[in-house]
Every structure is written in C-alpha cells, then in structure tokens.
Specification:
Length: about 300
C-alpha cells in the first residue's frame, strides 16, 4: 500500500534490505515495474523487490532507450515506485550519466529518492539496449573508475556492474571485465545478453563467490529460462525488465483499436480492472479514513489586517 504516514516507511535503509534479501537462500526474483501501479501490483503478488528498467522508463515516456533521460527524471520514477510499493528497488543507471563525478551525483540522487541498488553498464553513449547489435564498449579501466566512484559515494546502495562485453569480446572478455569491476568495488555483476545455458553456467563458474544477476527479457538474445533455471546455473538475482510495460502496452493498443472499431469500450469491459479493484490497489479508503481523522483547519482570530 502507498505510504500514508511516516510510520509506514520502513525504518531500515533500502540498500540494507536489498542486501538481506541477497543473503537468503534461493534466487531473488525482481520483476520490472515501470510505474507506481505496476509496483503496487508486484508487491500484492508477493514479490520482495522490484526493478526500474531504463528501457521501460523511456518507452513509457515515448522515447527510445538511448541514454536520453536524465538523473532527475529517473529519480521521479524511483520515488513513485518506492512510495507505491514499499519494496527495495534496483534501478537501471545506464552508463552513469557521465564520468566519475556524474556517477557520484547519480548515486546520491538515487539513494535520496529511495533506491536500494543501481547497476552501471560499460557502454559508450549513445548506449543501446543490451540485446541489440553494434554496442560500443567503454575502456574497462574507465568503467572500473565509475564503479569505484559509485562505491565511494554510496551510503547503503548496492552497486551492480553490468558488462555488455560478451557480444564483442566473448566470454573471456566479459569475465576479465567483471573481475576488474569486482576489484573496483562492485557488490554484484550483471553479464548482459548471454545467449545459451552453457554461457550462463560458464560465466558463473569463472566468477566463484560473486553474486550474479541474470536478465530474462523477451524478444532478445537470451532464451526463455525460469528463475529456478537461473538459480541452478549459479545466479542470485533475475530481472524481467520490460515485461509489465509490454503487457500493458499491448492491452492499451487493443483497447484503442476496439474503441475505434466498436465506437465504445463495451467489448473490452471484461478485461478491465474494475473501479473496486483499482480503489483497493491504491488504498483509496485508507486515504479517506486518514483525511477524515485530520482536524479541520481553524483560522486564528488576530489583529485585523484590513478594515
């Protein structure tokens, strides 16, 4: 339920809560939540953490995932997802919005907005979705400097380093970069766009003792695997970054087509969230009860300000 009072806000820092989840047995399942309502629904479904994808945020704004949006725009999404769900949130930090000082500013801004974790990637701008072709990689030592800057700037934020090197430098290049990023201070590693079970297993075997994140995005280079599949391969986290947005967008597309075709929404009503379901999800009656409990404002009688 969305936060209403200070007492509703978890007392423990989001980063600590995220770390605690990673220390438990089993794989941490982290669905993408592209806005506050999606975050509410993820929490109601029983998930214990959620993810803010750069691709989903930009697409929801009608923009491509090319590193266009700003730190402050992402912070707006962080605040609404944190407030709506109360869950620790892993955030896509793209390339860090610049060099080391920019990364430190990003870390401060994201943590102040309520983020629990952030991942940085080793691409150059204009960056691309990790499952597209012709990605340009940053120098590994330049990326390590960004990771070190993030680790130095954070209070409790979990720092995840993503490498997109597998496509151009192979598994050896991706592993070498990942080890460098761990030495620089990364808490976990995200090897992007691995395309076989053998690659996932081999990467994990060569990174013993390191917490690894798997990306189960649809329509990309990675075949469909379940959370238990990834766990068996040696991964501690799995994200479904854009799934919620894809389902919502497809449903909206069908709604608008139906209205144009039928001249109304009657053909789609059975597929809609009802008013009752919406109000329950957003806690409308809790807001109403709180509002009714607040004493009506009394305007003080003081010295007349005018005759």
């Amino acid at each position: 339920m969305p936060y209403l009072l200070a007492s509703d806000v978890p007392s423990e820092a989001a980063g600590r809560r995220f770390r605690a989840l990673l220390e438990r047995p089993g794989i941490l399942q982290i669905p993408g939540t592209h806005n506050g309502m999606a975050a509410i629904q993820a929490a109601r479904a029983g998930f214990e953490a959620c993810y803010l994808s750069g691709a989903a945020m930009t697409a929801s704004m009608g923009l491509p995932d090319l590193g266009i949006i700003t730190v402050d725009e992402v912070a707006f999404f962080i605040r609404q997802v944190v407030r709506a769900s109360g869950l620790p949130v892993l955030v896509d930090g793209d390339t860090g919005y610049g060099e080391a000082l920019n990364v430190m500013h990003m870390v401060h801004t994201f943590e102040e907005a309520g983020a629990a974790a952030v991942h940085l990637e080793d691409q150059l701008l204009p960056k691309k979705c990790g499952h597209l072709n012709d990605k340009r990689l940053a120098d590994a030592h330049d990326m390590a400097a960004k990771v070190a800057a993030a680790a130095r700037a954070r209070r409790e934020l979990v720092v995840v380093a993503r490498t997109d090197a597998a496509a151009s430098e192979g598994l050896d290049g991706a592993v070498a970069r990942a080890k460098l990023y761990v030495e620089a201070g990364a808490d976990a590693i995200f090897p992007e766009a691995l395309n076989t079970a053998e690659m996932f297993r081999a990467f994990a075997e060569r990174m013993p003792g390191v917490k690894l994140l798997a990306n189960m995005t649809e329509f990309g280079r990675t075949p469909f695997f379940t959370a238990s599949d990834f766990e068996a391969m040696g991964y501690r986290m799995v994200i479904w970054p854009v799934s919620s947005l894809r389902v919502a967008n497809k449903a909206q597309e069908e709604l608008y087509a139906s209205i144009r075709h039928h001249g109304g929404t009657h053909a789609m009503v059975e597929r809609m969230q009802t008013r009752k379901e919406l109000y329950e999800a957003i806690g409308l009656h809790d807001y109403e009860a709180l509002d009714a409990s607040i004493v009506q404002t009394v305007i003080p009688e003081g010295v007349p300000q005018r005759s």
